[in-house]
Amino acid sequence: MLHLILNSPFQSQALAEALSYLQLEDELVLMQDAVIAASAPQWSERLAGIPLYVMQEDLQARGLQHRVGNVLDMAGLVALIAQKGSPRTWGG
């Protein structure tokens, strides 16, 4: 399953909740304010080793550099959703 995380982990429990439901074959996409997690040291350590994508446009809009995960653009997100099926959205 593909999990889309929308909110900053410093303002919402969405990422922590999604991680508690994560299965071995699942993947995470951090988008909107959730991309903050990919640049924050305490979250980067927790996310290491998890199949993770970080939206490029959202990183750029916030002036952030990711420490963990693979950068994904909108076309890549569409392709990932087409491959994995309907995602589960956390936050919003």
TrEMBL record:
Enumerate the NCBIfam families for this protein. Answer: sulf_tusB_dsrH
Query: What PANTHER family would the database entry show?
Result: PROTEIN TUSB (PTHR37526)
Q: What is this protein called?
A: Sulfurtransferase complex subunit TusB
Instruction: Name its species.
Output: Aeromonas veronii
What is this protein's gene name?
dsrH
